[in-house]
Request: fold
Amino acid sequence: MRRINGVIVFVALGACCASLTDPAQAATPDLANSIDRKIDNFTLPDYRGRPYALDDFADKSVVVVAFLGNECPLCKQYAPRLEQLSKDFAERGVCFLGINANQQDAPSEIAAYVRCCQVTFPVLKDAGNVVADQFAAVRVPEVFVLDKDRHIRYRGRIDDQFGLSTGSGYARPKTRSRDLAVAIEEVLAGKKVTHSVTEASGCLIGRTAKIEPHGDITFNNQISRLLQKHCVDCHRSGEVAPFALLEYSEVVGWAPMMREVIDQGRMPPWFANPEFGHFANDSRMSAQEKELFSKWVDNGCPEGDPKDLPPPPQYTTGWQMGEPEHIIYMRDTPYTVPAEGVVEYQYFTVDPHFTEDKWIQAAEARPGNRSVVHHMIAFVLAPPRREKAGNDFRRGGGLVGYAPGERARIYPVGTAAFVPAGSKFVFQLHYTPNGREQQDRSYIGLKFAEPGTVKRRARGGAAVNRRFTIQPGVENQPVAAHYTFDKEVLLATLFPHMHLRGKSFRFVARYPNGSTETLLDVPQFDFNWQLRYEFSEPKLMPRGTVLECTAHFDNSEHNLANPNSKVAVRWGDQAFDEMMIGFFSTLPVNDDVSTDDK
Reply:
């Protein structure tokens, strides 16, 4: 470890979403009881094997200890900030040290984290989570500030900008509370820390089990199959999820955190109220599956007989839809995504030079850099003379998009989407910095249908309200929109869209006979998952049916993702603005290949 004049900052590294593997330790400790407790000397090796002891730094006035994780999104986002803090306080005697307490993180993986995140302070390996237990550390990233006598003076978050405690996470435009920096300043000044305990949002540390694994529910038998069904599509190498869930050694450290997000309904990502509608892409675990997984964790996560392990799933390499006939990149050169902060939506307009009308049989959006592309949508921008004929996919959620879990859009034989000659494509990109400057050049692929083979035209549409004002501090403000079908159609998909203040969204069909039907209810909208809900069977919308959409917005300080609860919010493209759109797609009841909207 480096000695930096007076204060040591220990940064302990733990798994992004791992937790206590011993159920007896699963309860969150009384955090306030940690304050003023003395930390005894300990010795841990770094990822190279070199040992470091706390007593090696007896000349330091203050020691700060923070728990992080190799694969934790927050730990990657906060790595540059911790590195900067270590430099800012270096001349005043502050030292930073990293500790990884995850059973699933090997020294070679810690080395990769240090290299990729450009961390210069030492990073140690806490095998068996002995030191994590002494600190009673729970989540990552979680930091501890020790005074000259090695008593805990502060524990909690680094600051309040990023968190995982709501949905799949949030990122405020800027930091409002520099908790760790303020605590260090107060300890250096000999003052009592004003806010000695804050809640560390993030992931649980992947502790080693303190009980002997037992029971007939095993990873190799039931759990691996459960994960293949619900999780591995994203949680594998090269996909959007931050860690893989294919091997027992990977899963065992994450298991209790997985149970937490499953119980909370955060994973697998699916937000529809099961009381309404049947959807082909429903990814929920059943109550029985949740109980099975929870019982396995309670039993200490037994591995089981290797003979019971199912063969690994086979996934399509490359394009899900098959090799495209035409590829369109968002721009000629990559876009640079900064290491941290909030990136406003980026828009790129591309001319594919279509000199004739096109029928799109399949379309697929592919991020150039999955680590930073939150979502993207490719809209069709028709030329002025064909604007009415071609703008339905600009109004209807885009021709194709990408979001975690989103699949290629492949239409049945005889069905296709229409793009008129002279159209351009507008790419909307939402980037989420991951702690290191990145480059991205995303793109879409298209497969065409011969015009003579197309019998039905797929269309997009939307119920939109652009004229609203969400008042400051309001927790549950409703905004409504509607769309009337002027001819009989089959409703194929629904896609609610709001931004960071979005709270809930509901689609209701009001039929010409006066009856109503709730088609989709999303009681807890999550901006981080742009989900398209695909009906198991398209629903008939008779002519004159009104699609009524009601959204609710939370512009209060209780919404942790809220950029600013003190301002009124109106329609706008950026995430700090708001939108209220009920996207949908339809198919004709009978053969229909008209190229206008009549």
Summary: Residues 73-88 form the longest helix (16 residues).
